Amino acid sequence: MQQQILFGRYELAGLLGAGASGRVYLARHRVLGQDRAVKCFPKASPGHSTFRSEAELLKSLNHPAIPVIYDVEEDDENDYLIEEYVAGQSLEAYVLHQTTIPLDFVLRVGRQLCDVIGYLHARPVPVIYQDLKPEHIIVYGNQLKIVDFGIASYISSEGNICQFYGTAEYAAPEKRLGLPCDERTDIYGIGRILQFLEQFVPQEERTARLERIIGRACAGEPSQRYREVSLLMEELEAAGISEGKKHLLTNLAVVGMRPGIGATHLAISLHVCLNAEGIPGLYTQPSDSGDLRRIARRSWVKRERALISYGDFAGTCSREKAQEFLREGKGCLVSDFGTYESTDIELEQCDGILLVLGGRDWEIEQAQALYERLRLRKNLVPVVNYGNERMAKYYARRWRRSVYCFPLDGDPAVPTMEKRQFFDMLRKKEGW
Amino acid sequence: MRTIGFRLAKREKEHRTIGFYGADSGVGTTHLALAAASYAVGEQGISAAVVELSDKPCIGALDTKGRDFFAIDGVGYYPGVLPERLPELLCGPYRYFMLDLGCGADGWQELLRCDLRYVVASFSPWRIGQAKNFMNMHNEKIHYFTALLTSTGNVYEKKNFQRKYRVPVRTIPFLADPFGPVKDGRPFFQELLY
């Protein structure tokens, strides 16, 4: 591995990790300019046998939480597996960098694991992953990916397979004893992950319900665990709904100082973060700029009558639907007014108006003019975009009031920890 | 007969024009042009100027005296320039000229004349359609672009776009302040100005 270029295509950029069966390198495809994870399996190593099985298995799988395999290569000393590089950090590293983690995050991880493990179990020939542990789970934005399928196996016709590799700490009792494994072995793994995460949840957020779920998933006797992953998934979903927090929000407005300033970005971010916090919500655009219809055209968006949804996002173009949502008190309506024009009457009805201001030097004058028009409103909350703290402080000093700074962000539909913390802080400070 | 003028005229082109054109308005073209100039001067020690040919000029607001040229922290600024003045400005004493071309028709023509041609677009779900329309409209000239730059959108959208239009898509690092240090954005700007 002295060479820097592999197979004339992959330029090695660093070591990502090393395990029993080999090493994983970060590499950049020289033509496409894309990052790849290159797994190197020395032919002489005892774990080399996992190479073929992992390659065979991965090529047949297609799930957002499973890395894509691009190529298989070999040289005199090693075999190589070229996979999608997942630019996140392991769940272990992610959690260990947090002082506490919200209960909602634990439930979300649980649900995503159930989804991907359920997919593996539902294959024509079911696959047992067998090695679930925080190190093998990569947190990438709002999406988890599981890596290292080295010891995953198909269930044989006898229904019993057992790989004597893996990590003892997270291995199911039957695996440690060399007894037959089945789908419930992975359910035990999910339970152990939830148990690992639960210790970081603040005491006041912990619930007896989650304790029960973990207890059942981690039962020593396989027959006492959930029969299949879907049952565990249902329990986790139910736990998420019942743990929804109480809130005072019903109607929030977002107004930008000019087109393209990021009002829609902030409004969608606010909406998905509230949803992620357990505050059900709906996004709407009273000004009907056509953005929602454009979102609805995306292939991955679900459309159902007047409602469009994907991930944590749910929006409607219909004013009637939005009003009905508000009347019935189903949650928080986020109204994206685009730019401030003649929207006074509708703004009156809102609990809070987030005014999105530009943070660039040439935007100060326009921001000042708009602020002058709106400053007497009690529920006005000025927010500077692009993470420009310097300008937020500048406006705050000038106007002698709190001006918030919305964090930098690439994808509004992903409720990142940073954005959630921002909106949480906003809610606390504004008493929502 | 004096020959100095002749020699000067034969001098090789020493400057480089880097054009930033917006596939749509409000995608951050000016922000990026300013950040690239600040990076060139502040981190690479190479002289740079921003020439604003945008249909919506705004950098004039950086100068309180309303001059048609000013310099801040070593970066030269030419606000609200008309296209006919451009050849004269490009003889100025700068190595890099960052052309903020806005999203109008004049800017598009100038982009094709630049040494490095970047199109800035938004990949937000509600704006990616405009980026696609732009690519379809200029289909036969796509290969002229050095790269398409975006700060928003997810990795899958970018991959699909790159595959469909066969144009390199690069992610613009988030910079709260275009005049401040680029920090994590260094590799991006290195590649941008190579």
Tell me what you see in this structure.
- The complex is a heterodimer of chains A (432) and B (194).
- Chain A is 35% helix and 22% strand.
- Chain A contains 14 helices and 20 strands.
- The model of chain A is unreliable at 242-247 (pLDDT under 50).
- Chain B has one domain: 3-Layer(aba) Sandwich (Rossmann fold), CATH 3.40.50.
- The model of chain B has no long low-confidence stretch (mean pLDDT 85).
- Chain B is α/β, with parallel strands linked by helices and 194 residues long.
- Chain B has helices at residues 4-10, 29-42, 86-89, 105-113, 128-137, 155-165, 186-192; strands at residues 16-22, 48-52, 70-72, 75-78, 96-100, 116-120, 147-150, 169-171.
- Helices cover 32% and strands 19% of the residues of chain B.
- Chain B is globular and about 45 Å long.
- Classes of the chains: A alpha/beta (432), B alpha/beta (194).
- Chains A and B meet through helix 9 of A and loops of B.
Tell me roughly what share of residues is in helical segments of chain B: 25-40%
Question: What is the count of structural domains of chain B?
Answer: 1
Bin the strand percentage of chain B: 15-25%
Query: Which class do the helix and strand fractions of chain A yield?
Result: alpha/beta
Secondary-structure blueprint:
The complex is a heterodimer of chains A (432) and B (194).
Chain A: E1 5-6, E2 10-18, E3 23-29, E4 35-42, H1 49-59, E5 69-74, E6 78-84, E7 89-90, H2 91-96, H3 103-121, E8 127-128, E9 137-140, E10 143-146, E11 153-154, H4 173-176, H5 183-198, H6 208-217, H7 229-242, E12 251-256, H8 263-276, E13 281-284, H9 291-296, E14 302-304, E15 307-310, E16 313-316, H10 319-327, E17 332-339, H11 344-348, E18 352-357, H12 364-374, E19 380-384, H13 389-399, E20 404-405, H14 417-430
Helix pairs in contact in A: 3-5, 3-7, 5-6, 6-7
Chain B: H1 4-10, E1 16-22, H2 29-42, E2 48-52, E3 70-72, E4 75-78, H3 86-89, E5 96-100, H4 105-113, E6 116-120, H5 128-137, E7 147-150, H6 155-165, E8 169-171, H7 186-192
Parallel strand pairs in B: 1-5, 1-6, 2-4, 2-5, 6-7, 7-8
Antiparallel strand pairs in B: 3-4
